[in-house]
Amino acid sequence: MAYEYHRLPAAAGIGLRSPHVGEVLAQRPSVPFFEVHSENYYLDGGPALAALGRIRADYPLSLHGVGMSLGSSDPLDLAHVEKLKTLIARVEPALVSEHLCWSAIGGRHLNDLLPLPYTDEALALACTRISELQERVGREVAVENISSYLAFADSTIPEWEFIAALAQRTGCKLLLDINNVYVNASNHGFDADGYIAAIPADAVAEIHLAGFEQSDGCLIDTHGAPVAPEVWALYARTIERLGPRPTLIEWDTDIPAFDVLQREAATAQIILEPRNVIAS
Ligand SMILES: [Fe+2]
């Protein structure tokens, strides 16, 4: 494989989870890039970090954070930022990303990615924190749109305008999760294609695809199912608009055999091929 490790290829990669690490190390499958959760490697040594180093020697890597709590009104957790900086120096990832959410307040951590009220005040706060994070780690960070199951009555800015403003004001990149756009469009009753149309194309550094499940009329972003046909269709329309982008299959619960993820990635790859984009 001859990939440039300093950037993600516009191809379909796979989220690497611990049950598959041994198989990947033994078989070195043809995968254009892997993404891992940053916090799983905030270690000073040990077998997990050693395995990541071996994988990084053969594949471009995307570091995806789940614990920075970018949207919190707390000061940035500088110990957390330092751990991310150390990991960046160790593995030299092609991309670093975080979620647009909050998960800690007053020093208490919640095990969830919670939505923000989309207000001018929250936007200013998120921009300040994203800018500070980018300055401290010395590189652009991609910010991911999350799924949500409630909306704040105080919100005054549509989610897509909020996300676009983050990129325009801070120069951050965006990690556009197509499943989350679809889930939120269904749960909150907005037009998913209108959302995609409002996103600045140049800012989109990576795309996520995952599976949702339905519960009591609400779509839940479980990351435990195949990508739904409606999400594949929205993804194809997104690629038609944006052009090919690095795309990642995420699967975090009821993790299947690695070849199931490879088949999902192969479906994304077909959509990414230019001739198929034109035909879609
Ligand atoms: Fe995602």
Polypeptide structure, described:
- The structure is a single chain.
- The chain has 280 residues and is of the alpha/beta class.
- Helix content is 42%, strand content 18%.
- The chain is built from ten helices and twelve strands.
- It has helices spanning 18-27, 47-58, 78-91, 120-137, 159-170, 178-188, 192-198, 229-242, 258-272, 274-279, and strands spanning 12-15, 34-37, 61-64, 95-99, 102-105, 108-114, 142-144, 173-177, 204-209, 213-215, 218-220, 247-249.
- The strands form three sheets. Strands 1-2-3-4-7-8-9-12 form an eight-stranded parallel β-barrel. Strands 5-6 form a two-stranded antiparallel ribbon. It has a two-stranded antiparallel sheet with strand order 10-11.
- A hairpin with a 2-residue loop joins strand 5 and strand 6.
- Residues 144, 177, 208, 210, 250 line the site of fe (ii) ion.
Structure characteristics:
single chain; about 280 residues; alpha/beta; eight-stranded parallel beta barrel; two-stranded antiparallel sheet; 10 helices; 12 strands; about 20% strand; globular; binds fe (ii) ion
In angstroms, what is the radius of gyration?
18 Å
List the ions, cofactors and other small molecules found in this model. fe (ii) ion
Measured between the Cα atoms of the first and last residue, the distance is 29 Å
Fraction of residues in helix:
40-55%
Number of strands: 12
Q: What structural class do you assign from the helix and strand content? A: alpha/beta
Number of helices: 10
Biggest sheet architecture = 8 strands, parallel, barrel
The proportion of residues in beta strands is 15-25%
Q: If strands are numbered along the chain, what order do they take across the biggest sheet?
A: 1-2-3-4-7-8-9-12
Mean pLDDT: 93
The ordered string of helix (H) and strand (E) elements is EHEHEHEEEHEHEHHEEEHEHH
- Low-confidence spans: none
3D shape:
globular
Oligomeric description of these chains: single chain
